[in-house]
Amino acid sequence: MTFAVKIKKWHAVASWTWNAGDDVCGICRMPFDGCPPDGKYPGDDSPVVWGICTHAFHLQCINRWLQSQAEQKCPFCRRQWEFKQAAIGGEDSDA
Amino acid sequence: MVDARSRLFKVYSRRQDCNTNKATSVRPPPPPTPAPQELKEASRNREATGIELIPDERNVYLWTALIKGPKDTPFEGGTFELAITVPEQYPLVAPAVKYRTRIFHPNVHWKASLLRTGEICLDILKNAWSPAWTLSSVCQAIVALMSDPAPDSPLNCDAGNLLRSGDYRGYNSMARMLTCEHASR
């Protein structure tokens, strides 16, 4: 027995998330998928960045912290902060 | 009182609406304050740490913390009140934390001057501050300082000298007496 199904219309649904293990930014404590206090929109407007020490923050948050400091250190581990090059496909997630 | 606090949260939810571009608000966004997240963390940690964090009813930048003297210290059994002032640039700048309750400890200022009484000498409140700290974890660090005084960088030289000369009995009895006098409720 076979059904002949005719699709009249369909809705595509997609979701996104930053591939960041910890779900809130360690500086502003807002979710990575949301935005920092001064950000307007989540997503590309509030990017998440990683340091070579594998700790992640909102780009705006870590930038403001580094600008206020003479020494460029990770807020979590105090190691020298250097931006980690993003890997395509997100396999560099520390999750 | 309930009104002021609920307003604080309402302001926040409106800001999140702004984030998702759903609501338009004529009011300018409030300065970033730690309130909701800090409160959430404080209540989550409250059982484990015995630390109570209370925001001021009218001013989100002023907080009071109640911390308990740790076990096996002369502060055991005492409840100490801390006055926390959160700077506008928080968390890029450390909060200012002072003891409101008198305490005999080498790293807490004893002099009865209006400005310095209760001042705490703790690296994370000064040059070792990092925005990864929260009000709750700062209070935990202060509790840890009660267990591990650093007599070599004293603000209270009498307490520091007692420890440095090895007179633990003198230090303990003095500190315990003042705990009984000021921190017992």
From TrEMBL, chain A:
PANTHER family given in the database record: RING BOX (PTHR11210)
Give the source's domain of life in one word.
Eukaryota
User: Which species expresses this protein natively?
Assistant: Chlorella variabilis (Green alga)
Name the GO terms of the biological process aspect. Answer: anaphase-promoting complex-dependent catabolic process; cell division
Instruction: Read off the InterPro entries from this record.
Output: RING-box_E3_Ubiquitin_Ligase (IPR051031), RING-H2_APC11 (IPR024991), Znf_RING (IPR001841), Znf_RING/FYVE/PHD (IPR013083)
Task: Tell me the ranges covered by the RING-type domain, including all copies.
Answer: 25-78
Keyword set, alphabetical order = Cell cycle, Cell division, Metal-binding, Mitosis, Ubl conjugation pathway, Zinc, Zinc-finger
Which Pfam families did the record assign?
zf-ANAPC11
One GO term describing the cellular component: anaphase-promoting complex
Instruction: List the GO molecular function terms.
Output: cullin family protein binding; ubiquitin protein ligase activity; zinc ion binding
Classification via PROSITE patterns: ZF_RING_2
Q: What is this protein called?
A: Anaphase-promoting complex subunit 11
TrEMBL record, chain B:
Among CDD domains, the record links this protein to: UBCc_ScPEX4-like
The source's superkingdom equals: Eukaryota
Instruction: Spell out the residue ranges making up region: Disordered.
Output: 19-45
Cite the InterPro entries for this sequence. Answer: Ub_conjugating_enzyme (IPR050113), UBC (IPR000608), UBQ-conjugating_enzyme/RWD (IPR016135)
Gene3D superfamilies according to UniProt: Ubiquitin Conjugating Enzyme
**Domain named UBC core: which ranges?**
30-184
A Pfam match is UQ_con
The protein's name: UBC core domain-containing protein
Q: Which organism is it from?
A: Chlorella variabilis (Green alga)
